[in-house]
Design a protein that fits this description.
- The protein has about 240 residues and is α+β, with helices and mostly antiparallel strands.
- The longest helix has 23 residues, at about 220-244.
- The relative contact order is 0.13.
- It is about 30% helix and about 15% strand.
- The protein is globular, with a radius of gyration of 19 Å.
- It has helices at about 20-25, 80-95, 110-115, 155-160, 195-200, 220-244; strands at about 5-10, 10-15, 50-55, 60, 75, 135, 140-145, 165-170, 175-180, 205-210.
- The two termini are about 20 Å apart.
């Protein structure tokens, strides 16, 4: 496999052909913030937090979906990018009902970590205070729409790793929301296997085990990663078998 040499934040980096800028930066120890990205499932480039500057174009490029190329010059943490990311995080807080002090994911939330990382100590935008409900119809898990950031990680994990496709997205834009099966309460979704992969994939406190209280939510990302690795290995073996 061909090797590409590029520059990220003034550092020479080598990457395999087919890898993304996020892959290359991660391997080189260069942090790029993400929210919708989840290793082991498909990439959608929805949150736009991983946007980077690439020499030769004025357009900001999503690192998770931009393949490496020979001679690329990439900047990941300019003042422009810092301001842009801070605005995205502020928008996420303003359009939802994220009250960290009473959230099950307090201290274990990727959105909370991002706010700290981008230096967001207050929200300068007008809060939307949407009227969102909770779904606790499932015997093991709960869904708090107030904390959902529409990253679709739960949808992709359920579909690609469990093969159930219980979750999907309904609505458009600001009115988008998660639905299970044909917009049934989660507890009535016949496709759900109660595997918990969606809960492990969620970056916030939107999906949680029932009975969790403030700050108690813990996730087993290693288990999710192991499942993803096994899934991809099985898929590659099947493709190899079918091609022969």
């Amino acid at each position: 496999m061909a090797v590409k040499t590029l520059t990220i934040d003034h550092q020479l980096v080598s990457a395999r052909s087919g890898e993304t800028l996020l892959d290359a930066a991660t391997d080189a120890g260069i942090p790029i913030p993400t929210l919708c990205y989840l290793e082991g499932v498909s990439t959608v480039g929805a949150c736009r937090l991983c946007l980077v500057e690439v020499a030769g174009t004025s357009k900001l490029m999503p690192a998770c979906a931009t393949p490496v190329a020979e001679g690329m010059v990439v900047l990941t943490n300019t003042a422009r990018l810092q301001e842009y990311r801070r605005m995205i995080v502020e928008l996420l807080f303003a359009e939802g009902n994220h009250v960290c002090s009473v959230c099950v994911a307090d201290g274990n939330c990727e959105l909370q970590d991002l706010a700290v990382a981008v230096g967001m100590d207050h929200v300068s935008l007008a809060y939307q205070f949407p009227d969102r409900q909770m779904d606790i119809s499932h015997e093991r898990f709960g869904l708090d729409f107030n904390r959902c950031v529409l990253c679709t990680r739960c949808i992709r994990a359920c579909d690609e790793l469990e093969g159930a496709h219980t979750w999907d997205m309904a609505g458009r834009g600001h009115a988008s929301y998660l639905v299970s099966d044909l917009n049934q309460p989660w507890g009535e979704a016949s496709s759900c296997t109660s595997c918990g992969k969606c809960v492990n994939a969620c970056p916030t406190g939107a999906l949680f085990p029932r009975g969790s209280t403030v700050g108690e939510l813990q996730r087993d990302r290693d288990r999710l990663s192991s499942t993803a690795i096994a899934h991809h290995a099985t898929t590659q073996d099947r493709r190899h078998y079918e091609s022969h």
